Amino acid sequence: MIETAGLSRAQLRRLLRERRRALAPQRQRQAARRLYRQLAQHPLFRRCRHVALYLPNDGEIDPGLLLDAAQRRGKATYLPVLNAWPATRMVFQRIHPGEALHLNRFRIREPRPNRARQRKVWTLDLLLMPLVGFDCEGGRLGMGGGFYDRSLAYRTRHKYCRKPALLGLAHECQKVDRLALASWDVPLEATVTDKAWYAADRKMMRRGQLHRDPCGACE
Predict the structure, then answer these.
(1) Which end of the chain lies in a sparser environment, N or C, as judged by fewer CB atoms within 10 Å?
(2) CB distance 203 to 189 below 8 Å
(3) 147 is in an annotated binding site
(4) With contact defined as beta carbons under 8 Å apart, do 20 and 139 qualify?
(5) 9 a known binding residue?
(6) Whole-number Cα distances in Å, 107 to 55, 101, 102, 181, 191
(7) What molecular function terms (GO) are annotated for this protein (predicted)?
(8) Residue 55, annotated ligand binder?
(9) What is the DSSP letter of 205?
(10) Residue 78, marked binder
(11) Annotated binding-site residue? 199
(12) Minimum mean pLDDT range among 17-21, 50-54, 103-107
């Protein structure tokens, strides 16, 4: 575990990115298999009908086995897609097995934008998120672009709108002692690594509870 005292966010981000990029391909594949075993039979994953994931980049842990499992089980699966305009907006678009992908401006694979297949984030059941660093209290350090924070900003305005369940995915080496949350940061329910679960909302994790939207619309 890395101690964050005396490190700026930029310094911490650089250190953690170096750590995950240093993992050998064999270690990455092993971590992906272990991540799958951690999550595949958990009630949160088994019960969800609409789940968003990501495709790995820059040494991120690979949720590809979970994506394959979700599609085999008949779940609707989604990937993040960056808008051309406004350039700071990200949406979630349904993806089908074998679909052709292209590289976005960050050289990350994503489907071609298709509004008819996009879904509002608050109507998803489960969102599996990449991260650079995490702590045990739901803190998440991202790449610095703020795409996920902007997509989830409605949760700070509508306190009772708790969908989707938010799980960060990471290598164990990305764990830090504590992350100071900014006002725009949206905490995770838990982070899942290749070795363990770190649940901030322990009651929800034990029950495998999927949040329901009591107000019907979180806009």
Answers:
(1) C
(2) no
(3) yes
(4) no
(5) yes
(6) 11, 11, 9, 28, 25
(7) 5-formyltetrahydrofolate cyclo-ligase activity; ATP binding; metal ion binding
(8) yes
(9) H
(10) no
(11) no
(12) 103-107
Q: Which residue has the higher pLDDT, 201 or 52?
A: 52
Give the separation between CA 189 and CA 205, rounded to whole angstroms: 8
Does 134 count as an annotated binding residue?
Answer: no
Q: Is 74 annotated in some ligand binding site?
A: no
- Position 208 scores a pLDDT of 57
Q: Which of 130, 108, 144 is nearest to 192 (CA)?
A: 130
pLDDT of residue 218: 40
The domains found in the chain, sorted by start residue, are 9-207 (3.40.50.10420)
- Residue 40 annotated in ligand binding: no
Cα separation, 112 vs 82, whole angstroms: 10
> What is the spatial distance between Cα 21 and Cα 166, in angstroms, rounded to a whole number?
24
pTM equals: 0.89
**Residue 166: its H or E element:** strand 165-170
